[in-house]
Task: inverse folding
């Protein structure tokens, strides 16, 4: 343990520095794209050594709050968090309209699976029932925004994956089965650290956070149509209810 | 479908068993870390066969409610995430009813502040307008669940803090100003690492994640009443829309 880690009230100094910079950003003292003071200046301001300042900046970079540009300095990252509206009619592409020029969903694969207790309950099936399972990543303007797994009853939607590929829209795929409309029945939101696969597919730094949404879409009568588990990089996305 | 799945009123027996055990946990008959009765005892209690009991336990394990330890038995898992329902009528205490025996909100302090651009926009005020600012921590069964900062227009609610202390309920404090009802106008949900103060007040480990909700409550006509920034430990709480 370095000296800096045993500072003030047991709180590591690098963490206090990171918090102070975060506050400067949240409070508007530092705006998107602004250059941070140099390491030397920050070290002076916090009575810390440069190693400690560097550690604080590395943590902020990992969180996606700042970006270090070789030879130029460290800047407040101008990532604009996209807002994904969650409501009765929740559509991913529509929801991001006006925030991104292109929203693309790439299907990574599909397979027939047996429903786990959780999937079965969400879809109103018996555990073990056959379900279609789709894996996908969605990108907005080329930046990965969502890694999703979707389950549907096989009996009802045996060739959903093929229709999705053909029609390139979940809404239109449901339409083709005679469901011109669907509504969001339930959304459960939690957060955790990204796992290895998510880190890779979403292009995240180790230690990045994902917002996890579990969602059930239903027909207008309330019969469940699909159950989806979506992971959104917290640094790029927020959910608006 | 096994015999046990066609029991009582169409509700599978394994589901009834799982629900009963879940109730025992929520109701405090079984505490965190407690060992569940043996499969044989549970089978007797529910007049079920052991296969059915095993299925119920497997479902609970999958939900993260219990954990099976090889050769030792099944135990109540010591992380129980509470679900906070967010909807048109969002009330913290009511929302946690049935999930916790006691929900207590401790006010850490209050002061008169000038509205930042963000607060002003949320409350429909001019930036810099006088606002009441309340800091609080809420605990469920003694465990910190939320760290919140709430802003209200000073002009409208000059002594809100005093009334809150007296009435011990936000709902009743609003009532005392002639607002018998309020509705959730907007909720924005994001996630990040807890800062030092949150870590301390919420009793978290360094690196813990908080779900952050920004919420505007309004009167039934849609006029904003309060703006709150709440931080929930992601390991203890999830939000259900």
Result:
């Amino acid at each position: 343990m370095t000296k800096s880690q045993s500072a003030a009230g047991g709180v590591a100094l690098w963490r206090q520095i990171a918090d102070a910079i975060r506050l400067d950003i949240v409070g508007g003292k530092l705006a998107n794209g602004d250059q941070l003071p140099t390491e030397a200046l920050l070290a002076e301001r916090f009575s810390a050594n440069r190693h400690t300042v560097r550690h604080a900046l590395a943590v902020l970079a990992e969180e996606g709050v700042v970006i270090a540009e070789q030879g130029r300095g460290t800047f407040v990252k101008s990532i604009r968090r996209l807002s994904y509206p969650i409501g009765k009619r929740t559509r991913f592409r529509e929801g991001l309209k006006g925030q991104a020029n292109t929203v693309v969903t790439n299907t990574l694969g599909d397979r027939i699976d047996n429903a786990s207790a959780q999937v079965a309950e969400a879809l109103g099936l018996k555990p073990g029932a056959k379900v279609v399972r789709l894996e996908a990543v969605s990108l907005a303007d080329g930046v990965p925004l969502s890694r999703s797994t979707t389950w549907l009853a096989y009996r009802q939607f045996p060739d959903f994956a093929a229709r999705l590929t053909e029609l390139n829209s979940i809404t239109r795929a449901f339409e083709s089965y005679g469901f011109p409309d669907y509504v969001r029945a339930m959304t459960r939101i939690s957060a955790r650290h990204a796992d290895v696969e998510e880190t890779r597919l979403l292009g995240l730094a180790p230690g990045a956070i994902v917002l996890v949404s579990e969602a059930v879409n239903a027909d207008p009568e309330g019969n469940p149509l699909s159950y989806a588990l979506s992971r959104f990089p917290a640094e790029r996305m927020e959910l608006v209810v």
